[in-house]
């Protein structure tokens, strides 16, 4: 290969150094549409830790492989794209550094800064070793870059440039994905940056790309979630939400199994979430980034759900930390402060979704009456049993709602 040199410039156009073309970190043909770095034919470079360290124009390199070419001798590839700041200072998730197996890869899609727009990033990169799995608990790790990396893997594995709607399936909602449409691809969570295997019985450790009927749109369906009580930190809890946003989803449906405070809601009753009370004492938003949570749970989507099922009631969901169930006194406290439903998930994810600009629909499945409301002791087996009994109704409800979003 001709060892052409590349000169890299910083954000203000200042030179930041040179890198030879045969360096393991050179990213060739990283040109993109307006708003990202450079023009077609530009290059980017990554450092030893996978960080982007510069970008600039390449000299002629006739032996450099074109994007999409796959030299068999290349042991691995990483993709890279710079994440520019949006108007309010937040970083837009982009391609980041992703292990993608042998060879070269090109043609990825990354989210736009606002609305549902997309910007395509075209690139091919060459490295000599796999990048280490990201550690979301490390303060130095940018969680939005990890989400962008995860979205890039999902796009490659599913063959879909973007997804439109995301669903997080809680206890009792597992059959929903089957009723939305044909499953076009299934991915093990552990194969995607930042994700882990399911930690709770009754949850699936996979994510699926599902056709939404014959609309031509795609749903990204998560068969499990990371719960706050697992101890992996808030970033891990909301990683699926941020990944969905990076994959192009503008709407997310958050479901859960919960305890009901209204005796009229028998186990197996779905209830729309109108608002929430977050008792975890944590937030997924870091720094002085003030996000309005008024109408966090979309009135428009709740109205759509009621058009599908006019019997749907709604209430306020209260998240406790868990994993222990609430005491009768805690349930009475939740009722006193305005709660109707109690559980161990959802609120942190909803906050992260609002930060990402997504429209949120929350639906709880009452799997049991909360402690003190019923004389029966609580058990996870009861939660699973109630979910299985209500699976048909819940699946049909959510499939019909997603088709109308």
A few lines on this structure:
This protein has 405 residues and is α/β, with parallel strands linked by helices.
Task: Summarize the structure in words.
By secondary structure, this protein is of the alpha/beta class. Helices cover 21% and strands 24% of the residues. The chain is built from 9 helices and 17 strands. A 5-stranded mixed beta barrel has the order 13-16-15-14-17, surrounded by 4 helices. Strands 5-4-3-8 form a 4-stranded antiparallel β-sheet, with no helix packed on it. Helix 5 packs across helix 9 (391-404). It is globular and about 50 Å long. Residues 1-17, 19-51 and 55-131 have low confidence and may be disordered.
What is the secondary structure topology, with strand pairs?
Elements: E1 5-9, E2 15-20, E3 26-28, E4 42-46, E5 52-57, E6 108-111, E7 118-121, E8 124-125, H1 143-158, E9 165-168, H2 176-180, E10 183-188, E11 206-211, E12 218-222, H3 234-237, H4 239-246, E13 251-260, E14 269-278, H5 299-308, E15 313-319, H6 328-336, E16 341-343, H7 347-355, E17 359-369, H8 380-389, H9 391-404
């Amino acid at each position: 290969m001709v060892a052409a040199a590349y000169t890299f410039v910083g954000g203000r156009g200042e030179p930041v150094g040179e890198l030879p073309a045969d360096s393991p970190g050179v990213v060739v043909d990283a040109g993109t549409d307006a708003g990202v770095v450079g023009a077609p034919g530009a290059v980017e470079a990554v450092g030893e830790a996978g960080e982007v360290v510069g970008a600039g124009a390449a000299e002629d390199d006739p032996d450099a492989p074109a994007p999409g070419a796959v030299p068999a001798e290349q042991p691995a590839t990483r993709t890279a794209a710079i994440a520019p700041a949006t108007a309010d200072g937040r970083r837009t998730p982009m391609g980041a550094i992703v292990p993608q197996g042998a060879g070269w890869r090109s043609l990825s899609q990354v989210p736009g800064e606002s609305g549902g727009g997309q910007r395509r990033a075209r690139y091919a990169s060459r490295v000599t070793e796999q990048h280490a799995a990201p550690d979301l608990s490390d303060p130095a790790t940018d969680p939005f870059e990890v989400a962008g990396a995860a979205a890039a893997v999902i796009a490659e594995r599913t063959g879909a440039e973007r997804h439109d709607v995301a669903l997080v399936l809680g206890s009792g909602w597992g059959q929903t994905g089957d009723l939305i449409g044909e499953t076009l691809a299934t991915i093990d969570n552990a194969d995607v940056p930042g994700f882990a295997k399911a930690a709770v019985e009754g949850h699936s450790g996979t994510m699926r790309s599902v056709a939404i009927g014959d609309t031509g749109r795609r749903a990204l369906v998560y068969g499990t979630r990371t719960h706050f009580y697992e101890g992996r930190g808030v970033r891990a809890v909301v990683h699926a939400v941020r990944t969905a946003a990076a994959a192009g989803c503008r709407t997310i449906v958050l479901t859960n199994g919960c305890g009901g405070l209204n005796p009229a809601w028998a186990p197996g009753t779905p209830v729309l979430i109108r608002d929430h009370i977050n008792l975890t004492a944590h937030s997924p938003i870091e720094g002085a980034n003030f996000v309005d949570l008024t109408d966090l749970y979309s009135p428009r989507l709740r109205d759509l759900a009621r058009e599908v099922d006019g019997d749907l009631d709604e209430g306020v969901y209260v998240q406790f930390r868990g994993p222990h169930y609430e005491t009768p006194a805690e349930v009475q406290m939740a009722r006193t402060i305005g709660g109707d439903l109690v559980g161990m998930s959802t609120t942190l994810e909803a906050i992260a979704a609002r930060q990402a600009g997504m429209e949120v629909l929350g639906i709880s499945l009452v799997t049991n009456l909360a402690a003190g409301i019923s004389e029966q002791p609580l058990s996870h087996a009861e939660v699973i049993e109630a979910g299985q009994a209500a699976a048909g109704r819940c699946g049909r409800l959510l499939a019909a709602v997603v088709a109308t979003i």
